[in-house]
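Risk register update: the risk of archive-format incompatibility is retired. Evidence:
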Amino acid sequence: MTAKRKLVLSIFVLAVSLSLASSPTSRAFADDDLKSRLETKLVPYIEQVMAAQEIPGLAIGVVLKGKIIFARGFGVKNLDTGEPITPESLFHMASISKTFVATAVMQLVEKGMVSLDDTIVKHIPYFKLADERYKKITVQQMLSHVSGMPDVEDYEWSDPQYDDGALELYVRSLADLELISGPGERFAYSNMAYEVLGDLIAKVSGKTFEAYVKENILDPLGMKESNFLRDAVSPKLTTSPHIRALITEVSSVYPYNRMHAPSSTLHSSAHEMCYWAIANLNRGVIGETRILKDASYDIMWKKWSDAFGGRSVGLSWFIVDYKGNPTIQHSGGDVGYSTNLVLLPEKGAAVVVLCNEIPGPVRPVTNAALDVILGLDPEMPKMQASVPVCRALKEEGIDAAVSLFKKIRREESGAYDLSMRQFFFIADGLIETGRTEQAAEVANLCIAVDSKDADGYRLLAFVHYMSGDIDSALDAVRQGLEIDPDDEELKEYFEQLTQMQAEKK
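Archived output:
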């Protein structure tokens, strides 16, 4: 998906880091009527957010002390059919899939079949890159995103592979790539590395990646409807992906490709993801079933590297402080889906939020649920200005949209999120569906609203880049740097694009 490509990933990362800013420690942990508080505090919050952002569907599950205490569906599976979401509705989980990869690897470590210090080539001799340093990459480095591996640029969702050999074929296709840093040197999020790990799991276990995870994790935990294989999930339970392309619409592209199963393609529900949360909060145990030894969690949730936005990274999981409380978490986003899972190990609590749209409000809804659990009242979020503004752009044209945006800034700024960054997801959705001219119009709208904000030119550069027009992308970056010469992100884009331009010539 284009939203995962490097030029967009850093934008998404920034948005995540801003949303995790610390605040004062909460009051005492949950009271006896937590279920009632979730009904009276959280449900109205979710309903207001979904209405304000025109979200098609969302499901949430809340776990406390080994039990599912709240599970609810909101909205619809598909805007065209209107079938309601339930806690059993299946969503594409995107990057939360990686937490299952880490658990599978740790199972093999416990059996003595793999060591975290093993090099990848020990188990996959055909793994090669156009950089001799690849031979030193270890299992642990891939799990904690410090392998130096680049990220995937094209997931080929529109041309998916379904056969058993797709993962190995993908790993063999990496031979022309170079590392972006030395193994172990620095954090760089890599979906590609997880595809390699999935192939390692397959080769060491003698099963396909999907079969191994189903037999050793999903089925033992009672996650009977969950599966990494799209063809194996129930059509009656699946949701449809939606994108914000000026207005919310059903995506023509479904995010599935077996080459990218380990990083992205788990299908699951709020209900069954609660089982996953319980098993992890219990350090590998649910009911009479144990999937990992207790000590393995000391390794998985150990800080292996600093990440972004005040985060640390363990083995797949991110370690983050939320209002004075340590959390273990992972989020995800692909074409049409947004997901989030947060564990509060010291409290025995967890929240999972799944949405069949990107961008979806999974993080603010998660935080609202965490606040209720922690005895706080969730603060209602501001409405996104991009929702009415982009609708005006679609229905009345750019002049009307610019006029509306300026009016909102002038008269209702306290009620709206006015950041330009929210328009990146909309432009990405338009590009994903081949509407690059409309994407450029969104960028020009941002520039017309505030020509002194570098983000408008940043967005225009992204649109040109994704359209293959490197020269125009460079011009837009130069204009952005004239406004903000110290913008590190724009300076990095300038270097990347200059190099691309030189290579093209």
